[in-house]
Design a protein that fits this description.
Layout lengths: L1 H35 L20 E6 L1 E4 H15 L3 H7 L1 H8 L7 H13 L4 H7 L4 H4 E6 L2 E3 L1 H4 E6 L2 E6 L27 E5 L6 E4 L6 E6 L12 E6 L3 E12 L10 H4 L17 H17 L20 H11 L14 H5 L14 E12 L3
Antiparallel strand pairs: 1-6, 1-9, 2-8, 3-4, 3-7, 5-6, 9-10, 11-12
Helix pairs in contact: 2-3, 10-11
């Protein structure tokens, strides 16, 4: 009996030690995970009122970057002043389109430099010329409806700079140098449903096409955060190709992230996000990951080509990339269109990709408070 009692006590003592050890292991593991990831994301509500979420910014960009009619009129003006052949100047006008996609033919270097010298003599900047020979919103947008009410397109759309050049934008509230009139600094909101959205009829004038960035007619619709510069390489823009003779419906699904103020007590590397005023980008005001990436790419372009492309609204007559810079821009364009991830152990396998992609001095963290938009498009052909 004594031996049996000792055996039972020994058995339960072992069980107790095992359970204590298991509990201590779980606590230590959870504590380690908490130290490495002290924040957690949880769903607060899936029924948050839509009319409290900002409507996204919308940019409508014609795939035709140069209006043939406007380019010809400007070419004739230049030819009259310089006494050059109008057809020759008209051919030179295509070079302005290459400032959009950095396309380049080595055999055209002398012509690029010659046309740039002509523009310099006439004191014409490529930014002004690109805007004057782009298709204006008055011709691109045929009719507009907002919340099921027909409105004048010019009252809700304006021509502003995006990554795709000059486009017709709606609900874009960032204040930049290309802004010619006063805008509301707060994005508009609306209710759910097709009848509360935006409807636009786009006019594709095919005879007026002169330079396209894609081998296709139509328009590119960009959906973006209204307080951000619409920049495709930064990943904050959803693009939808709209072919001619089609009706397209775009469903917007917003997701809003909010952080409690206690998160600010943790180091940035731990919480993995930045609040509005913790870092200032060239755009000033509200911080965003997209604007931070634009800063990074802009500094890289300045370092390698000593200029800023006209699409980024920080260039002026002294810093804007001219036709003479196209060969340099073409050499590195693939690098600027890809961003190498931070904190990844690349090993010996991705060294080439590391050199051929953009790496920023400071990590561009996502904002602690943001709204992101998913866009789902459905297209139907129009036969008549």
């Amino acid at each position: 009996m004594v031996t049996k009692g000792i055996f039972q006590r020994l058995f339960w003592s072992c069980i107790y030690v095992i359970l204590i050890s298991y509990t201590a292991t779980i606590v230590a593991t959870l504590w380690g995970k908490f130290l490495s990831h002290p924040t957690v994301t949880s769903l607060v509500s899936s029924t948050y009122p839509v009319n409290k979420v900002p409507f996204p910014g919308v940019a409508i960009c014609s795939l035709n970057k140069l209006s043939k009619k406007r380019a010809r009129n400007f070419a004739n003006r230049i030819a009259n002043v310089t006494r050059r052949n109008p057809k020759e100047i008209m051919n030179y006008m295509r070079f302005i389109g290459q400032l959009h996609d950095f396309d380049f033919e080595p055999s055209s270097v002398s012509q690029l430099l010659e046309f740039q010298n002509i523009l310099d003599l006439m004191q014409i900047t490529v930014t002004d010329l690109a805007k004057k020979i782009a298709t204006p919103c008055e011709e691109l947008l045929r009719s507009c409806f907002w919340r099921n009410v027909e409105v004048n397109c010019s009252t809700i759309f304006s021509m502003r700079l995006t990554h795709g050049g000059y486009c017709c934008v709606f609900n874009y509230v960032k204040i930049t140098s290309d802004l010619n009139n006063r805008i509301e600094e707060k994005p508009i909101t609306t209710d759910a449903g097709v009848e509360n959205g935006l409807y636009v009829a786009i006019a594709n004038n095919f005879p007026d096409y002169y330079y396209t960035t894609l081998s296709s007619p139509g328009a590119m619709i960009s959906v973006f955060v209204p307080t951000d510069y619409p920049d495709k390489p930064s990943g904050a823009v959803t693009e939808i190709l709209v072919p001619p003779n089609s009706e397209n419906f775009v469903e917007i699904v917003p997701t809003t992230l909010r952080s409690v103020r206690d998160v600010a007590n943790y180091p940035v590397a731990k919480r993995g996000c930045l609040f509005d005023k913790e870092r200032i980008t060239s755009f000033q005001r509200i911080y965003s990951q997209s604007d931070c990436n634009v800063d990074c790419r802009m500094m890289s372009i300045q370092a390698m080509c000593h200029c800023i492309p006209f699409m980024i609204p920080f260039s002026n007559s002294d810093t804007v990339c001219t036709l003479a810079d196209i060969p340099c821009l073409n050499r590195y364009r693939d690098k600027w269109n890809s961003l190498f991830p931070y904190g990844e152990d690349i090993g010996p396998y991705l060294n080439k990709e590391k050199q051929d992609s953009l790496r920023c001095d400071k990590k561009c963290y996502p904002p602690c408070e943001e709204t992101v938009y998913e866009a789902f498009a459905t297209s139907f052909p129009i036969f008549k």
